[in-house]
Amino acid sequence: MADADQHALPPEPEQDPPHPAPNNRMFAGARVYRWQMYADPALMYLNLINWIIARLEERAAQDGLEATETHQFEGQEYTYRLTARSGFFIILVVPPVDYTDNGQDLALAFSFKDLYLLGFLDAGLWRLFDDADLNGTGDQPNGPAHTKIGFQGGYSGNVFTETMLSLTTLVQSYETLKDTGRRENREIRTALLVFIFVISEGLRFMEWKNHLHLLFQDGGRQEAPDSGGRIFSFLFQD
Questions:
Q1: Which residues contact 47 (CB under 8 A, 6 or more apart)?
Q2: Which residues form a coiled coil (predicted)?
């Protein structure tokens, strides 16, 4: 499920940017969004979330699903946005305009089925979580278009209290995934978790998305739990 923000947003681009790996057929046909960091941090985030939600609704309709589903619980009516049965989307993470290291876009692949991150593009080859669902990707489990990262995408350890989230850590995560040859698996995993927490969980849980929106408004750096002391996972509700 996901929640769309009602803020006034600029019009969507008329067409997607070019596919980041035209010679790699792994995610051929996936929708692509160019995510420019920093320009207006809070709006930057809402633009991303709303673009994905619009594409999710389109994909669900292609799969013959309604966009939302309503349920009654303890006398209250709740409406949920449904995920699709298939399909993928790619987020091109673009470094800030004043970035001095001649950075290139970072391509992240996500699934419309559960909204989770599958992996990232590294020198024309997709590096995917060991447990990534490849059904419908256009490549075989051991095909030439991708390789396994070496670890799974689930949460373990103290990730909820040790992961730092801010504009700074977004850029640091971008830098890590563009320089994997000199990074340890621990650093790569942390960088991927930052994008999972910001994008996937922001799509899945409204309260967490609102928390991140406020975080980006003030540009602060903090651990995943907010200043009120609530546990990170408690925000993964509704």
A1: 9, 10
A2: none
198-222: per-residue pLDDT in tens?
999 999 888 888 888 888 887 655 5
C-beta of residue 57 within 8 angstroms of C-beta of residue 160: no
| pTM, to two decimals | 0.83
> Which pair of structure tokens corresponds to residue 164?
């730092």
CA distances from 34 to 13, 95, 114, 144, 238 (A): 10, 11, 21, 26, 28
pLDDT digits (tens, 9 = 90+) for 107-140: 999 999 989 999 999 988 999 999 998 888 877 7
Question: Domains in the chain: how many in total?
Answer: 1
Query: How far apart, in whole angstroms, are the C-alpha atoms of residue 237 and residue 216?
Result: 20
Domain that holds residue 93: 31-235
Which CA distances in Å does 54 have to 47, 48, 49, 97, 128? 11, 10, 9, 27, 25
**Mapping DSSP to helix (H, G, I), strand (E, B) and coil, where does residue 158 land?**
coil
Distance CA 67, CA 100 (A): 42
Q: Kindly report the CATH number assigned to the domain that includes residue 210.
A: 3.40.420.10
**Which residues does 155 contact at the CB level (< 8 Å), separation at least 6?**
193
Radius of gyration in angstroms for the set of CA atoms belonging to the chain, rounded to a whole number: 17
